[in-house]
């Protein structure tokens, strides 16, 4: 049997370097995975399992087998522009697919590294994998591997999509394939949810990050509190209907565990006389401000991130704590090497931030209540949470068309948005295998990674002695941020304003060049188009390749850039100058206008923030020069 190992290794190193790194030192199990030849001489492999051995392909002609399969799926893939193929094996099915459907984009996943390593030995891979229509290729059965591939698909696919399995893989890797189908649905749902969220809030978030900056540079970071609640139980309170019945138990537990109010649940807790040990808020929308408008934030520690509604931070707050979420690229850009805040994963809800905070503080176990992640008995919020109009809540529940299993084995009504929140929490819990999570939301959705236990039952097992009720408030209120950060932040914000002004000027120059390209394209002036394409691409590379764009301006364009990214490959691969010009004009025009709008607005916001920062600096300077004597 001829060996192609050396050629394949060189090809993979050059074209698929991440796969090369996986296989280059990987030792194949030659006893379990035995190479052989089919009767027509094509390579095959026999795989031993606990129930016996099987051949991956036909023992007569693997290529004919693959071609027949491709014919059998013709109607299934007819309307799909993008296909993810589960199972590469020796590449016969992928090769036949590309030959039969050269216009379709193919993403390939091989779960078994042993099989692929064997393929590297006996199949010439370059003719199969060195195709422009191959969108991505991944190998390995780790969750991160196929989730990473699915993420690429979700971000790059512009048209219809289909997940297919090579027949033998669908049989032999049945559980993994089913899991991948579920994760594909979840990830696409999450991607669509994120896209909708970006378009709704990206401009508001940018405003909040800039306007909140004077608070951030004066707020102690959560890093000062790492591990201070080691092995102290935490109850993360949501606003769902289940909370109502747990409120009496929460009252009794005050002082014996950390009660963490996730977002608007603080309304219900305060109304029933329960002051949480920590309130967490991240949402930048007006409803979140309404929820906190009448809450006394001097009575509890308040954990926030930079995207929170700016008016909330203008309230008196006795013990603020800042935590950074990794979707905000602007704040680290401003603080540079002075940025020393812990970074949390951006999640679909404030509950995700609260979970990460509890883990960071060292809490264990972590209990959920009011985290229904659905609408049990057609209810939205528990009594006392009233920041959204009643008509909106009723309409949302009435329009809920999805269902989810609840903790009692029945089902609750839900929405795609709420399902996305549930899946997001479940993925987050997988990151903390050393922590114990209980779900006490007695009417809520089942949450993977938790054990259901009513709160009163869990409380019976609690042996921790009671602390002073305000111990955490007193601890946090004594923390101080580095006073030099205010001065440094003022300088950096002023510098950012200047950078944005210069960027705006370059945008105007690019705009003139872009308009000339439009005109040349409309006039079918191919010579002029070729000349201008080079200029436009040079400008575009400069404008979008700069750190200012990557870290600052793109923050306001996250949704638009996700859409645009899907077309980058199409634009790049187009060789006809006139067609390339039309693609660029179609997909960049609106983005350029948005970049202009965003840059202009950010200049106004940064100017206001510089004034506020300078005022704070002057005020602190006066206090230092004229200290108040007691």
Can you put this structure into words, describing what you see?
- It is a single chain.
- The protein is α/β, with parallel strands linked by helices.
- The strands form five sheets. Strands 12-11-10-9-8-15-18-19 form an eight-stranded parallel β-sheet, with helices on both faces. A four-stranded parallel β-sheet has the order 6-5-4-7. A three-stranded antiparallel β-sheet has the order 1-2-3, covered by helices on one side.
- The longest helix has 49 residues, at 577-625.
- It starts with a helix and ends in a 5-residue tail after the last helix.
- The model is unreliable at 625-630 (pLDDT under 50).
Short structural description:
By secondary structure, this protein is an alpha/beta fold. The protein has 25 helices and 19 strands. The longest helix has about 50 residues, at about 575-625.
Overall residue-averaged pLDDT value? 90
Instruction: Give the number of DSSP strands.
Output: 19
Q: Low-confidence spans: pLDDT under 50, at least 5 residues?
A: 625-630
How many helical elements?
25
Percent of residues in helices: 40-55%
Global outline: globular
The major pleated sheet works out as: 8 strands, parallel
Specify the structural class.
alpha/beta
Strand order of the largest sheet: 12-11-10-9-8-15-18-19
What's the N-to-C terminus distance?
92 Å
C-alpha-based Rg, rounded: 29 Å
How would you classify the quaternary structure? single chain
How much strand?
5-15%
């Amino acid at each position: 049997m001829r060996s192609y190992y050396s050629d394949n290794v060189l090809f993979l190193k050059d074209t698929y370097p991440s796969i090369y790194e996986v296989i280059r030192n990987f030792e194949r199990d030659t006893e379990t995975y035995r190479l052989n030849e089919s009767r027509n001489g094509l390579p095959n492999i026999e795989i031993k399992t606990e129930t016996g051995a099987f051949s991956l392909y036909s023992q007569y002609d693997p290529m004919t087998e693959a071609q027949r399969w491709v014919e059998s799926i013709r109607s299934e893939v007819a309307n799909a522009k993008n296909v993810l193929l589960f199972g590469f094996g020796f590449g016969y099915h992928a090769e036949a697919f590309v030959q039969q459907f050269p216009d379709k984009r193919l993403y390939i996943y091989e779960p078994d590294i042993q099989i692929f390593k064997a393929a590297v030995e006996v199949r010439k891979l370059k003719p199969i994998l060195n195709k422009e229509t191959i969108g991505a290729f991944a190998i390995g059965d780790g969750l991160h591997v196929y989730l990473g591939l699915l993420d690429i698909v979700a971000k790059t696919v512009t048209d219809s999509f289909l997940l297919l399995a090579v027949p033998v893989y669908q049989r032999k890797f049945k559980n993994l394939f089913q899991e991948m189908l579920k994760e594909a649905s979840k990830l696409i749902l999450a991607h669509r949810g994120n896209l909708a969220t970006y378009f709704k809030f990206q401009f508001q978030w940018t405003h909040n990050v800039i306007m909140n900056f004077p608070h951030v540079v004066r707020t102690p970071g959560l890093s000062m509190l790492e591990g201070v609640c080691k092995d102290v139980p935490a109850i993360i309170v949501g606003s769902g209907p289940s909370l109502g019945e747990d409120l009496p138990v929460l009252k009794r537990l005050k002082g014996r565990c950390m009660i963490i109010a996730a977002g608007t649940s603080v309304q219900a807790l305060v109304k029933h006389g329960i002051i949480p040990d920590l309130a967490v808020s991240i949402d930048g929308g007006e409803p979140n401000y309404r929820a906190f408008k009448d809450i006394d934030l001097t009575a509890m520690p308040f954990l926030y991130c930079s995207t929170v509604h700016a008016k909330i931070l203008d309230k008196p707050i006795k013990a603020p704590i800042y935590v950074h979420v990794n979707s905000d690229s602007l704040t680290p850009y401003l603080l540079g090497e002075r940025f020393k805040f812990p970074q949390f994963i951006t999640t679909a809800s404030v509950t995700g931030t609260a979970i990460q905070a509890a883990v960071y503080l060292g809490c264990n176990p972590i209990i959920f209540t009011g985290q229904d992640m659905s609408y049990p008995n057609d209810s939205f919020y528990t009594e006392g949470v009233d920041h959204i109009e009643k008509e909106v809540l009723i309409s949302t529940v009435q329009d809920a068309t999805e269902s989810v299993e609840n903790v009692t084995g029945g089902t609750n009504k839900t929405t795609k948005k709420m399902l996305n929140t549930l899946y997001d929490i479940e993925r987050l819990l997988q990151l903390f295998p050393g922590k114990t999570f209980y779900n006490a939301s007695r009417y809520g959705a089942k949450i993977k990674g938790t054990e259901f236990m009513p709160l009163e039952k869990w409380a019976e097992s609690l042996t921790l002695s009671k602390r002073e009720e305000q111990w955490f408030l007193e601890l946090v209120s004594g923390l101080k941020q580095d006073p030099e950060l205010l001065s440094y932040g003022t300088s950096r914000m002023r510098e950012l304003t200047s950078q944005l002004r210069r960027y705006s000027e370059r945008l105007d120059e690019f705009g003139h060049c872009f308009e000339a390209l439009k005109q040349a394209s409309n006039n079918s002036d191919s010579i002029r188009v070729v000349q201008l394409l080079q200029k436009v691409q040079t400008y575009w590379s400069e404008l979008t390749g700069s750190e200012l764009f990557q870290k600052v301006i793109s923050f306001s364009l996250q949704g638009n850039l996700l859409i645009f990214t899907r077309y980058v490959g199409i634009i790049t691969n187009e060789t006809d100058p006139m067609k390339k010009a039309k693609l660029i004009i179609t997909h960049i025009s609106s983005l350029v206008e948005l970049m202009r709008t965003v840059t202009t607005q950010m200049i106004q916001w940064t100017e206001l923030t510089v004034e506020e920062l300078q005022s704070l600096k002057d005020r602190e300077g006066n206090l230092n020069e004229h200290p108040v004597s007691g």
